[in-house]
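Async update (no meeting this week)

Hi team, since we skipped the sync, here's where things stand on the single-chain job. The sequence we agreed to prioritize is pasted below, unchanged from the tracker. I ran it this morning and attached the output directly underneath so nobody has to dig for it. Comments welcome in thread, and please keep replies under the output.
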Amino acid sequence: MPDEQKAIVTPINALARILKSKKRMIEAMLPKHLTYERLISISCDAWSRNQDLQKCTLPSILQCVIHAGQLGLEPNTPLGLCHMVPFWNKKIRKTEAKLIVDYKGHVQLAFNSGKVLDIDAEAVREGDEFSYRYGTKKFLDHTPAPSDARGELTHAWAMAELPGPHGTDKTVFKFVVLDRAEVMFAKSKSAAGDTGPWKSIAYGEDSEDRMWVKTAVHRLQKLIPQTREQAEASALDYAAEAEEAQDHGSISFDAEDFIDATPEDITNLDAGEKSADAAEQLTDRVQQTSAKLDNSRSAQAAPPPRPAAVAPTDEEVAGLKKTIADYAGVTEWQVTAYCDRRLQGLDQTNEQIMQTLRAVQELPAAKLKEIILAQAGREPGE
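Output:
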């Protein structure tokens, strides 16, 4: 009777196995409309079909899956909500995947918030009929020309319809229009302006159009109510465009303990044959790592959780505002004004204020300062 063959562990199996070991934690963070099985199936399918993604480190792929799950968006599907995109990390000289939220994803998150009735955004080209006005008699009108009569990009706009005052049937329209100079200025601020999402193959041939529209959607978000998911999506975009690390979210993976190698380290064997010994070592490493992390979590004495009914205190809110103000080099007044602007139209509970601040507190200090000043402005008398 032949010896029982040992299971061969390929990179896709290693990816699926690690995600399976974190099933409970992943399920706990997913919104109701996205199941664990669907998220893992879509992510593994996207990875297996894209050779560029297969060159990325597995920890970075795992982080993309976690980020997509937290946002409730399906990555790399025909819906075009978000994409796992390869980026070359020159510091560690490896290819890493980062999650890029498409403008369609930002629109979907706005709908999911329940605070937006409708939202639309388009790029304007030469030959289109386009006019708008701000002020008390504001309007926006755009009629695209036939495709063969359209020229260069000239503007991008985004518009949202919001519920009116409570108890009325009125609705409120908010819109922004960006001309070429404004879009190019935003592009120049991106460290990946000539590469990254502006030129990503994941976006297809119309990547430039999409980024114009996405820039307008980003600007519109300053005028509409925000949720934690919307703030996190924006933070991921800022990090990717600045070629900085995207935060790990609520589930972290240690690049040293987990699979640090790229798939090439496993698949590039003589004659295309995979070594059974190497496969067994990889299997043992994954199992040992999972057991190590599980034992570590069990051994740690976790502090008693805050009762669900207890909201953050005024002192906790004030403490976090001071921490962020000191870190970003702004005043506490500006941090408060930033929160007021972000939560405009919502009941500003301590919990909402804490969520708003926590969503951006991991950003680099310079970027955080830029965001706060853009929303809050200068303090009176400064």
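Quick observations from my side:
The CA atoms of residues 125 and 154 lie 5 Å apart.
The chain has a mean pLDDT of 75.
Reply here if anything looks off.
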